Amino acid sequence: MINRASSFLWNLGQFSTFVPTSRTMRLYPLGFSRLKVVFSNNSNQRNLLSDFGNRVQPSIRYLFQDALIFKSRDFKTRGISTETVLTVNKVLCPRRLSFDSKRSLVSDDGLKINFHLEASSEDVLTKETKPTPVNYRKLAQECSSLSDVLDTFSEAPTFPSSNYVSAMWTVAKRLSEDQKRAEKQLMFNHPAFSQLCEQMMREAKIMHCDHLLFSLLAVVKLGIPQNTRLVQTLLRVVQERINECDEKCLSVLSTILEAMEPCKNVDALRAGVWILADQQVWKIERVFTLQAVMKCVGKGAPIALKRKLEMKALRELDRFSDLNSQHMFEALAAMNHRSVTLLNECSKMVLGNIHGCPFRVLISILQACRDLRYRNVDLFKGIADYVAATIDIWKLKQVLFLLILLENLGFRHTDLMDLFMKKVIDDPASLNMKSIISILHVYSSLNHFHKCQTQELQEALASSLTGYLHHISSENLLNAVCSFCLMNHFPLALINQLLQKDIINELLTSGDIERNTHKLRVLAACLKLDISCHKAGDLALPPLPSTPFYSNAKVADALSSLLGEGCFLKNVQLPHNYHIDFEVRMDVNRSQVLPFSSVDVVPAAADIQSCSLSIFSTVVSPLLLPTSPEGVAFSDLCASAKADFSFSE
User: Fold this and answer.
1) DSSP readout, 487-503?
2) What is the domain range of residue 585?
3) Model confidence pTM above 0.90
4) What whole-number distance in Å separates Cα of residue 314 and Cα of residue 320?
5) Where would I find the FAST kinase leucine-rich domain in this sequence (predicted)?
6) Could you give the number of structural domains in the chain?
């Protein structure tokens, strides 16, 4: 009995050499031996078993017979929990043990002790100590407000924090404008909000690049001020990690910069996007990513980069969807690059699917055409035809906004303007003062009249505007009265209010004085032509300036490059206060431009006096000229500048 007890104590000491001393051992009176160990993964299991075999010395001679079990309670490492079971196939006697190639214990007489790995239900370390990352889509569905998301974060913060701000942005998109304002105020006052911001700044350098960019996008969309430490920190980290951006990250980054105001960090990041886009433009696969980059680079991007993006877009024309063609107008306008070929192809695609085009996209297309000085009559007519055919589903303000854009483009669609006129006559009370002034400007500028309805429209608008006499500003009243006069309608109540001395003095001393003076001269000329008005002589207007308001330097440069010096005159003053910007003399057939020096030295003969006198009227605007005058025909220049030709005998 004493020998058996001493053998037990000696074996216990030997086992302590390969079982960690910090672990506790529990003895169970069962009929077999079992050792429970927790491993992180299969490789750790294999390494530990290998180490186990190396550390069991040949001097271990006895195992425990029938009654003894050792169980390690806290033998833990990182990872998945498993246990190792030593199963004894028969009653063990004192004998030498060794390990075979399969990591089984083998005794002298061939007895094998096999190791079986089983899943443990007790110590699952990874799941207990490392929480599962939250899914922002699921969190956004479960939460109904921004505060709910912050409450969830405060209970158990997990990595990455970008999931929480993305969930907050998703929730905010479902709210109305009033709800957004209230929820944002509650968000800023929530005690967990500052904790979330601190965690985002700590995690910025270790989270994935796409998580970092989505965090910044959500922060910007949530309306967190751009000058805060959180936003500026994220911008700096994005600058440091910009080389990690793939196509998806480049698209997100472009969207972020498009929505942000200029500052040092934003400008530096935009310059980085220029370099990145220049390097990766040919690798971009998605058209939406290409358009996002075009919007991001902006008007200040190098012309070489703009042309490279244009070439990439032309290569992808076959892959353009209807949505791609609609958004291409806005993308080109964002970087102020007019590609006529690309715009023509996109116009065809827009006209082919005009009925599936939302109204806001139609407005965006017309705005881009105005900004790019792109004139496509077929496109304008197609859009106006579609709106005229579906005018009953649009609000008056929507149609009016479209008419204003068409007026800016110099396009008059008769059917649409007649239909809109009828709707205004039927319900003039639905219009506010600003809408009335805009309608008057559009119809007077485009000189649109209807045989039956024009008089009714003028009376309806004059009656509605008279109700705003005590609230209307002097400039708005001047604009409205000038529009009425150009339409040959003279509402006396509005005219008498405008011709008061205090209002005239206010117009001549404040605001845009030059513009107000010009309109007052137009008004005085209209009143003189109307026999029913006798107050035109009471207007004390300043004298006309001796020099023109605009130098028209771009027009002069274009003419110099096309015609050469000495082939035109500038700032020609005519009798009766008429002024023209440029004078060009040509032969009778308009095939040759004659220099002024050669004409002036020749004696006045009949054949010389019959030379044509071509005059550019004051409607010439530098905006109407091509940006690059080289290679532009003189006839094209005249046509684009709306030249008014007259001939002298």
Assistant:
1) TT---HHHHHHHTSHHH
2) 553-644
3) no
4) 10
5) 436-508
6) 1
